[in-house]
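Quick review question:
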């Protein structure tokens, strides 16, 4: 077995992504009522909610997208 062959199976990959999506969804929805704080404050709040939930967390463009959507009242 080579180093590249040491990976999670497809079922585990799916579960990991589903869990990550759930954590992101919960974080975004928990800030739904704070739109008046503005996009930058919501961006910081999202990072605060997510950074300790993931190994090697690096905020990417998705966090900004959801912060902007929250600030614009686009999250139902």
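Suggested answer, residue by residue:
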């Amino acid at each position: 077995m080579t180093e590249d062959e040491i990976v999670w199976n497809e079922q585990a990959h799916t579960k990991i992504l589903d869990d990550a999506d759930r954590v992101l969804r919960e974080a975004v929805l928990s800030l739904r009522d704070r739109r008046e704080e503005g996009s930058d404050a919501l961006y910081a709040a999202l990072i605060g909610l997510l950074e300790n939930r993931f190994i090697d967390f690096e905020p990417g463009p998705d966090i900004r997208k959801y912060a902007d959507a929250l600030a614009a009242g686009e999250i139902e």
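Why it works: The mean pLDDT is 95. The helical segments are 10-30, 39-50, 61-71.
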